[in-house]
From TrEMBL:
Family of the protein in this entry: Belongs to the glycosyltransferase 31 family.
Protein name in UniProt: Hexosyltransferase
Membrane topology value: Single-pass type II membrane protein
Keyword presence, Signal: yes
Name of encoding gene: B3GNT5
Keywords, alphabetical: Glycoprotein, Glycosyltransferase, Golgi apparatus, Membrane, Signal, Signal-anchor, Transferase, Transmembrane, Transmembrane helix
Swiss-Prot/TrEMBL catalytic activity: a beta-D-Gal-(1->4)-beta-D-Glc-(1<->1)-Cer(d18:1(4E)) + UDP-N-acetyl-alpha-D-glucosamine = a beta-D-GlcNAc-(1->3)-beta-D-Gal-(1->4)-beta-D-Glc-(1<->1)-Cer(d18:1(4E)) + UDP + H(+); a neolactoside nLc4Cer(d18:1(4E)) + UDP-N-acetyl-alpha-D-glucosamine = a neolactoside IV(3)-beta-GlcNAc-nLc4Cer(d18:1(4E)) + UDP + H(+)
GO function terms (MF aspect): lactosylceramide 1,3-N-acetyl-beta-D-glucosaminyltransferase activity
Pathway the protein contributes to: Protein modification; protein glycosylation
Organism: Lates calcarifer (Barramundi)
Location(s), subcellular: Golgi apparatus membrane
Database matches in InterPro entries: Glyco_trans_31 (IPR002659)
Length: 387
């Protein structure tokens, strides 16, 4: 009897300790959990039950003279004849920071090499880099300090070698990413309006250019319009936590949800959409500094909806495997490994190993194992295994 009573007491103590532990964890995490859950519930309710995104357009519409302040910057580096006299399938803008010369050189040597694209893939793709001016001398990279030449002079020298930097005189910072987005659409409108597609991408992204070119050639042959493709975010709520990099105050954006948009790491629009977005930027308040959200606002204003492509990644890095490379479009977060990935992803054996009935069955099984994991997110979804 005494032993039984001791067991009961011990069991009760364990239950009490477990309960206290759980309550402690909940109390610590409650504020963050509450903010996340509540904001998403509000966002989806607004999107699917109320769906008054039309009010966003009205609230952000401003006079043209005022909107011009977001685009009326002087070009410091420019190439107005970059697309002249050429049948351009794709104008590809890479968003870059002035100090990221190694990333730009890696892109020029791999997936963004225009000569390779022209000679091997038989199409014209123009790759240019969008940037502003460095904020302070403290941000000058080591190569600039060693040479004793100023940062801007180094950029001028780099541009004289490659002829692909498009720079305006706004500060290059996270909070000016929307200005960099506007730069891209305005530059295309005035310098490369005949390009069939426009892509915007980060400078740490990997683009499988053979796959992308083949896909866009197919879309072009179909005469697609209102085309906007990438990794789609639906019903995303504004982040109101001041600790977040993506904090947006109520005064800047008062609504409960953002219009649908694609991850800024990399997406593609058709030429007609690019022109419509350009027109939208002439009357919209661009003070919101999350550029992919502003793209969603512009698209909402012109009545264009983004389309999901399972092989465009979000913020995640795709698995390394030939079965992934076979259909890969973009993968995010590549800097040091970009040369090796380019070599592996474009190797002729990739198509050989993944073709035929057995190759397709094998790759389906491999992709299910790689992609269908509960904790694997922000890159290709599980359904990509069956495409």
């Amino acid at each position: 009897m005494f032993l039984k009573f001791r067991r009961i007491r011990r069991c009760q103590c364990m239950q009490l300790m477990t309960t206290c532990l759980v309550l402690s964890v909940v109390m610590v995490c409650w504020e963050q959990l509450d903010n996340s859950v509540v904001s998403h519930v509000k966002s989806y309710s607004y999107r699917y039950l109320v769906n008054r995104f039309i009010y966003i357009n009205k609230s952000l519409t401003i006079p043209r003279e005022q909107a011009r302040s977001f685009s009326n910057f002087q070009y410091l580096l420019d190439h107005p004849d970059k697309c002249a006299g050429k049948d351009v399938l794709l104008l590809l803008f890479v968003k870059t920071s002035p100090e990221n010369i190694e990333r730009r050189n890696a892109i020029r040597s791999t997936w963004g090499n225009e000569t390779y694209i022209q000679n091997t893939l038989g199409v014209t793709v123009k790759v240019v880099f969008a940037l502003g001016v460095p904020q302070t001398k403290k941000e000058e990279p080591s190569w600039s300090k060693r040479s004793g030449i100023g940062f801007q002079e180094q950029l001028v020298h780099e541009d004289s070698l490659h002829g692909d930097l498009i720079q305006q005189d706004f500060l290059d910072s996270f909070h000016n990413l929307t200005l960099k987005l506007i730069l891209q659409f305005h530059w295309m409108h005035s310098r490369c309006a005949h390009a069939r597609f426009l892509m915007t991408a980060d400078d740490d992204i990997f683009v499988h250019m053979p796959n992308l070119v083949s896909y866009l050639q197919d879309m072009s042959s179909r005469g697609v319009t209102d085309f906007w493709i990438g990794r789609v975010h639906r019903g995303a709520p504004p982040i109101r936590s001041k600790d977040s990099k993506y904090y947006v105050p109520f005064e800047m954006y008062q609504w409960l949800a953002y219009p649908d948009y694609t991850a800024g790491a990399g997406y593609v629009v058709s030429g007609d959409v690019a022109d419509k977005v350009y027109q939208a930027t002439l009357t919209l308040n661009a003070s919101i500094y999350i550029d992919d959200v502003f793209m969603g606002i512009c698209a909402n204003a012109i009545g264009v909806t983004p389309q999901e492509h399972v092989y465009f990644s979000g913020e995640g890095k795709a698995p390394y495997h030939p079965c992934i490379y076979d259909q890969m479009m973009t993968s995010h977060g590549h800097v040091e490994d970009i040369y090796d990935l380019w070599k592996a992803a474009t190797h002729p054996q990739v198509k050989q190993r993944t073709s035929g009935l057995m190759g397709r069955l094998y790759c389906t099984a491999v992709k299910m194992a790689l992609l269908c994991k509960p904790y694997y997110f922000n890159t290709y979804p599980c359904k990509a295994a069956f495409f």
